[in-house]
Design brief:
InterPro entries: AB_hydrolase_fold (IPR029058), Abhydrolase_bac (IPR025890), FrsA_esterase (IPR050261). This protein has twelve helices and nine strands. By secondary structure, the chain is α/β, with parallel strands linked by helices. Helix 7 (192-207) packs across helix 8.
Length: 352
């Protein structure tokens, strides 16, 4: 039998020696504001967000379909030169002409077919299975509560898969090319996370032009990898008035370092500067809901204890901002699935 000589324990020690240089430690509001400004600049740098190229959106309607109690519009916008993002807009049937409604941007995670699962495309083979498995159609759940919902494809997913992972037969549509894209991005001084956030910021730009969207009431809501996108968008864009991060809130060391190693999670040098709780702390005082399954293996080896350790960092920031009532942690009895309990209640409170 071959011996195994790994570097893992050494890298864990390296993590302890260099991590969280910009950890949240503020005791006064002035310190908090300075810390947030400084960390946001650093995050824009290491994600490559400040390298993205602005372009005209050039929105185009591709198709419109009337569903049972909502309308589904497929559109495409240009987020960078020659970089196109398709997305669905879900409009409630009771939306009146001239009315402005609260809107939710609903990014997806893995094993979703991109926007298809969130937008409830159970007619697509393979997508129907993951909708049932993960309760993945939260875009449909939200539009049925009266919200306007934007369901985009992230780069590397759905209709935006790169050549190496294209194909729509069987389960192929559920695959992604996030690994290949992040490798390319890192070699260019960028990151897939930066691309995700930039594209969602451009979608926000478009949403603000829609006559039926109340631009003062736009939230972001995502599960799993969609939770990653929701968290980062709320951190980097103050236009997001409320955020729901589901199935994606835990310490980096106990989870991403040791088990959840998908490329989507990796930003160059991120762990040198902050942990996930520090990212959450940057959202204060805006309403933030974190949803955790009690049996979700992606919480890490220590389970909910890993979540609570990061939540305390966030709670300290909200307490400093005298906004503890804007932070909600919903723990439900279940695994890695979307749980919609209390979401409508949270959004109504956030937008009131």
């Amino acid at each position: 039998m071959l011996s195994r000589y790994t570097s893992f324990q050494h890298l864990l020690q390296v993590y302890d020696n260099i991590s969280a240089r910009y950890a949240f430690k503020a005791e006064y509001l002035s310190q908090y504001r300075l810390w947030k400004k400084k960390l946001r600049v650093k995050l824009a740098d290491i994600t490559g967000l400040n390298q993205m190229t602005f372009s005209e959106l050039k929105p185009e309607v591709l198709e419109t379909e009337k569903m049972d109690d909502y309308k589904r519009i497929k559109m495409i916008i240009q987020t960078e030169p020659a970089v196109l993002m398709p997305f669905y807009i879900l409009l409630p049937d009771d939306l009146q002409e001239g009315e402005e409604r609260a809107a939710v941007i609903a990014p997806h995670g893995h094993d979703s077919g991109g926007k298809y699962a969130v937008a409830g495309r159970s007619d697509i083979p393979g997508v129907n299975r993951v909708i049932e498995k993960y309760n993945y159609d939260y875009g449909i759940q939200l539009v049925k509560k009266g919200y306007i919902v934007f369901c985009p494809d992230a780069r590397g997913f759905g209709e935006r898969r790169e050549i190496i992972k294209q194909g729509d037969e069987g389960e192929d549509i559920l695959s992604s090319s996030c690994h290949e894209l992040n490798n390319l991005a890192i070699a260019l001084g960028q990151s897939l996370t930066g691309m995700f956030v930039w594209d969602l910021m451009r979608l926000l730009d478009y949403a603000e032009t829609c006559q039926y969207v109340d631009s003062t009431r736009i939230a972001v809501c995502g599960f799993s990898g969609g939770g990653l996108q929701a968290l980062w968008l709320a951190v980097m864009d103050q236009r997001v008035k409320a955020a729901i991060v589901a199935g994606y809130f835990h310490g980096f060391k106990d989870t991403i370092f040791q088990s959840n190693m998908c490329s989507c999670n990796f930003v160059p040098q991120l762990w040198r500067y902050c942990d996930m709780g520090d990212l959450g702390a940057m959202i204060a005082p805006r309403p933030l809901m974190i949803k955790s399954g009690s049996k979700d293996k992606l919480n890490g080896n220590s389970g909910l204890a890993n979540v609570y350790s990061q939540l305390e960092i966030v709670r300290s920031a909200y307490k400093l901002m005298n906004a503890e009532g804007n932070l909600y942690h919903h723990v439900f009895n279940g695994g890695h699935i979307w749980n919609g309990d209390r979401v409508d209640e949270f959004l109504k409170s956030a937008f009131s």
